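Deliverable D5.2: sample structural annotation.
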Amino acid sequence: MNKEHTLWSYWQGLLRHFGLRKAFLWGVEGLCNFLFSPLPIILGGSQIRSLVFRPMFKKIGHGFYSSPGIRLLHCYNMEIGDRCSLNYNVMLNGRGGLVIGDDFTSGPNVTIWTAEHLFRDPSRKVLEQGEIEKPVFIGNDVWCGTGSIILPGVTIADGTIVAAGAVVHRNTEPYSIVGGVPAKVIGYRKSSK
């Protein structure tokens, strides 16, 4: 067996990178995700997830709602505003820092990621080049459509709509509608008055 890929070396690497407190919290999160993520809404799953995860967040507002299958990673680095709604199978990674404003809603299978691998040096394996953490900021009144992906370092402005399947790698403008891979402005929200 390759010494570099033992369970012990894995945990040593985690402790070295995150420190004891964050590695412990990550383990508790993993257990909570495993136990409580599948609970259906009809059996109070959203309320149970809110109760269990609330103490792990850096900050969380009122009215947190979640559907089954959500996965929350590195909650200790997440700030979530009031009336946040996470649909089925949403994955939030707060490792690099994640701030979500009030009245955020997501479709199913949305991914918000705050860390990525370094990869520019072709003479070295990707896994040997380390990782970089970049915070994601999401404003108020934002809707991320089904299967959209928000990449590290992005700011989603107030009122933005992210179309289904979009991959957002750049900051958005207030009240814009972005879509595509990579995401670009495809319209703007307009008042019906």
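Annotation notes: The CA atoms of residues 157 and 174 lie 5 Å apart. The helical segments are 7-36, 45-53.
The annotation will be released with the project's public dataset once the embargo ends.
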